[in-house]
Amino acid sequence: MSERVLLQIKDLKKHFDLGKNKSLKAVNGVTFTIFKGETFGLVGESGCGKSTIGRTIMGLYNRTDGKVIYQGKDVHKLDEKGRFSLYSQIQMIFQDPYASLNPRSTVSEIISEPMIVHGLYKNKRERLEKVYHLLEEVGLNRDHANRYPHEFSGGQRQRIGIARALALDPEFIIADEPISALDVSVQAQVVNLLDMLQEEKGLTYLFIAHDLSMVQHISDRIGVMYLGHMVELTSSPELYSNPKHPYTKALLSAIPIPDPDIEEKRERTILTGELPSPINPPSGCVFRTRCPAAMDVCAEKTPAWQEIEENHYVACHLFEEKRQDSPSLKIKEKQHY
Ligand SMILES: Nc1ncnc2c1ncn2[C@@H]1O[C@H](COP(=O)(O)OP(=O)(O)OP(=O)(O)O)[C@@H](O)[C@H]1O
Ligand SMILES: [Mg+2]
Fold it and tell me: Looking at ligand 1, which residue's alpha carbon is closest to its atom 18?
């Protein structure tokens, strides 16, 4: 199993210092592993810390505490040379390809830049051949090389972003909401492209999205985040058929089911209350202020991150209690679900 591990995140914390003794706990103790060749979906509402995790993995942010171990190495302890080489193995794709592509550079210049920085394909002709090859791989063609980003559609621009991310033949791609800004019809095309590239190149993806429906079909495993914490993690089919955490259940019940009979009959969990601030998160379980199943203990203790069934991790007092077979709990669960 350990040979399959690409990345280990151990109790990772990233707090932003806001001055005046205040800090924003963007990521507050997250633990998970990414295996080689898989697509790991990371979901949760806006502001829960998804992008911060991506950036901290890349070493773009220093961690506050915890560890990011990539291929056995602590990324925050790498020297300059190690960091530089890490950047050729891990690449990012962003939500807004327009904002992440320099408008004054041609597509060829954009895709060549990482090669020049890393001293690869030093011969100009060779580099241009690589650019053409990458353009074809992402479903564009060599005629696009001398055009500028504004001459492309959103989907095509995302393809340029993907070509640039592939320029150094990385093994791991962090895709931060890569399809959220695209038309629904184009989303599927970009997802199919990512899928095909993964198969061809054996890539590993961390796929970030705010909506569970977006990651369902792409991901092998999914982690659900809430206010700086991971609350549940399991395989994609298991998460949809057997969700445990009340927050996951609420997210799932927000996804419409195309069959009107099922849609009409099913019960919904609608979250009430506002999302608390990560500057002053609730005590104990951060979800308790919006949780339909909250108990007294939830205000007192942070629930432990535990594997409650094989490969199914949850941080929730309902399941800590369940292990002790609390009868009161069963009643509570029935009432709410
Ligand atoms: N550089 C920064 N300085 C201070 N606070 C930050 C910084 N970057 C992010 N934050 C805060 O950290 C929290 C998590 O932000 P992050 O961008 O990781 O969320 P996200 O889950 O990616 O959200 P979205 O779905 O909107 O992209 C937010 O409250 C955000 O305001
Ligand atoms: Mg984000």
Answer: 49
| pTM of the full structure | 0.91
Structural domain range at position 252:
242-331
Atom of ligand 1 nearest to the CA of 52: 18
Instruction: Tell me, yes or no, whether 337 lies in a domain.
Output: no
Q: 94 and 100 in contact (C-beta within 8 Å)? A: yes
Phi, psi of 217 (to 5 degrees): -85, -20
Task: Tell me whether residue 179 is in a domain.
Answer: yes
Residue 161: inside a domain, yes or no?
Answer: yes
Please give the distance, rounded to the nearest whole angstrom, from the Cα atom of residue 57 to the centre of ligand 1: 15
| Smallest CA separation from ligand 1 atom 12, residue | 26
Nearest CA to ligand 1 atom 5: 16
* CATH code where residue 156 lies: 3.40.50.300
Q: pLDDT tens across 219-264, in order?
A: 999 999 999 999 999 999 999 999 999 999 999 987 777 677 766 7
The phi and psi torsions of 149 (rounded to 5 degrees) equal: -50, -35
